[in-house]
Amino acid sequence: MLNKQAIGCIALAGWLLALLSACGGGAGPVSFSQPPPASGITFSGTVSSGSQPITGSSVSVWTANPTPGAPATRLATATTGSNGQYSLNLPVVPANGQLIYLLAAGGDAGNGNNAAIGLMTVAGNFCAPGSNCGFSNPVVLNEFTTVASVYSLAAFVQITGGNVNVSGGSPGLRNAALTFASLVDASSGTESFQNAGACGGSGEPDNCSALRKLNTLGNVLAACVDSNGAGSVAGANLFQQTSASAGTLSAVFNLATQAAVRNDGAGMFSLAGAASVYAPSLASAPGDWTLAVSYGGGGLYQPAGIAIDAAGHVWVADYQQPAGAVSEFAPDGTPLSGTSGYSGGGLMGSFGIALDAQGNAWVANWNGGNGTSVTELAADGTPLSGSNGFTGGGLLGPIAVAIAPTGTLWAADSGNSAISQLNAAGQASGPFTGGGLGYPIALAVDTGGDVWVANQGS
After folding, report:
1. Are 60 and 15 in contact (CB under 8 A)?
2. pLDDT(213) > 50
3. C-alpha to C-alpha distances, 282 to 203, 206, 274, 279, nearest whole angstrom
4. Which pLDDT belongs to residue 334?
5. Residue 104 gets which letter from DSSP?
6. What is the DSSP string of 130-174?
7. Is the confidence at residue 161, as pLDDT, over 80?
8. In this structure, are strands 157-160 and 428-432 parallel, antiparallel, or unpaired?
């Protein structure tokens, strides 16, 4: 939820990252039939159900395809030993920035061989070893990493006949990997949330609710993983609840991408039973299984408007009356705008925000209905609109802004029931009235350049 200190309710259901890059179905994944010479890069880690090792599980490492719908490439496979550990050599060096993910299929978590086990994790966007870029190796695969992987990458995952394929363009797929890394430490298989420490008691951090949901879903999977498969009560119940043919990975995918499954809070919750592999978990059934994560910092305070640039960075207009500020966040929620946000350029009681084709941010300075300016910030947050912002053109209480295909900016002036126009240099004209305009609070420009305005007062 939106509050005075955090951007809230950024849902990590399967449809979220489709806004950043489209993906579609396509051919299944491919693998090297005759591996080229070894690259010298070794992947290692463990496959487990909580802390219980899974033996005899087939582990494979993959590179996602940057073309939506095209097949991913399997680089190597290995089988876990009695301690759940695996080690494998990559036959080639992946390209820098290429997304690497791992899958584990089958194995024994202590109750016999279970062909229904399907686990996943994301090592990250590849970079050279030792470059300290956040790429994980070794990596752990367990139920928690599986839920987080599927929810983060759902818009880029295709599962057909048991084959799992990941593909998608940039920046969407890259940002999906960053989303995963903001939730999970892949090297340990445990959570890495912002604002999720010390859950329990009064005044707990914002993201404890999302952590409890992830842990509860991990417990649901663990009940099946720790059984002897689809024929067990736990397995049969999971696959019936999620309409999955078989496999825990398919079950989570259906949960993340199918609204009917995701919205049945009580049904999935009942499958966790008394399992406590992952904690803290939910004490009662949620309304649904959408995950909402809150981010803060970067000067965020009284957020009033939001926009996303071509790289997937999130820009927020902070009302902060009387000062005003703008906060910027990386796709993984990392603040980029310092501790106080971007300031200057006439920012005051900032409200609406829009981004132009050059990545510059345009901000409406509503200031409680008394503002008379629009601010422009460069992509690095530097003010471009002088010390007082762009004025004139009848600007009064501008509360929302929108940019036309030509680059022209339109502002909704709540203070005088009008709209104003600014060119790329910030020169204003107007006010434009009529057509039923009355306390306009939102506007949008269509591909033909026509302006559509929502009027709260008419």
Report:
1. no
2. yes
3. 17, 15, 11, 9
4. 94
5. E
6. TS-SS--SSEEESHHHHHHHHHHHGGGEEEETTEEEEB--TTHHH
7. no
8. unpaired
Alpha carbons 204 and 368: distance in angstroms, whole number = 32
Query: Rounded to 5 degrees, what are φ and ψ at 134?
Result: 100, 0
User: 3-class DSSP state for residue 216?
Assistant: helix
What whole-number percentage of the chain has pLDDT above 90?
A: 76
Per DSSP, the residues of 106-127 read: --BSSSSB-TT-EEEEEEEE--
Residue 198 buriedness (CB in 10 A; 0-12 / 13-18 / 19+): exposed
Nearest one of 386, 379, 261, 290 to 1, comparing CA atoms: 290
Around Cβ 7, how many Cβ atoms within 10 Å?
21
pLDDT-based confidence at residue 361 (cuts at 50, 70, 90): very high
The two three-digit tokens of residue 412, written as one number: 């909704």
Do the Cβ atoms of 74 and 62 come closer than 8 Å? yes
Q: CB atoms < 10 A from the CB of 232, how many?
A: 18
Q: Is 162 left (phi over 0), alpha (psi -120 to 50) or beta?
A: left
Residue 20 clears pLDDT 50, i.e. is over it? no
Helix (H, G, I), strand (E, B) or coil at 313: coil
From 123, 143, 182, 147, select the one nearest 256 (Cα to Cα): 147
Res. 6: pLDDT tops 60: no
Nearest to 421 by CA among 362, 357, 366, 377: 362
| 305-331 confidence digits (pLDDT tens) | 999 999 999 999 999 867 889 999 999
Tokens of 49: 């159900």
Give the integer Cα–Cα distance in Å for 445 and 427. Answer: 19
Distance between CA atoms of residues 63 and 79, nearest Å: 19
Residue 30 has pLDDT above 80, yes or no: no
pTM (2 d.p.): 0.88
Rounded to whole angstroms, the Cα distance separating 117 from 228 reads: 9
- 195 — pLDDT class (breaks 50, 70, 90): low
- The neighbour count for residue 128, using CB atoms within 10 Å, is 11
Contacts of 450 (CB under 8 A, 6+ apart): none
Q: In what order do the strands lie in the sheet with 428-432?
A: 398-403, 409-413, 418-422, 428-432
Contacts of 168 (CB under 8 A, 6+ apart): 21, 22, 23, 64, 66, 68, 155, 156, 176
> Which residues share a beta bridge with 145?
none
**Beta-carbon contacts of residue 54 (< 8 Å; ≥ 6 apart):** 47, 48, 80, 84, 104, 107, 108, 109, 117, 225
Beta bridge partners of 346: none
What is the rounded radius of gyration, in angstroms, for the C-alpha atoms of the chain?
25
The pLDDT of residue 18 is 29
Question: Cα 43 vs. chain centroid, distance in angstroms?
Answer: 26
What mean pLDDT comes out for the span 417-433?
96
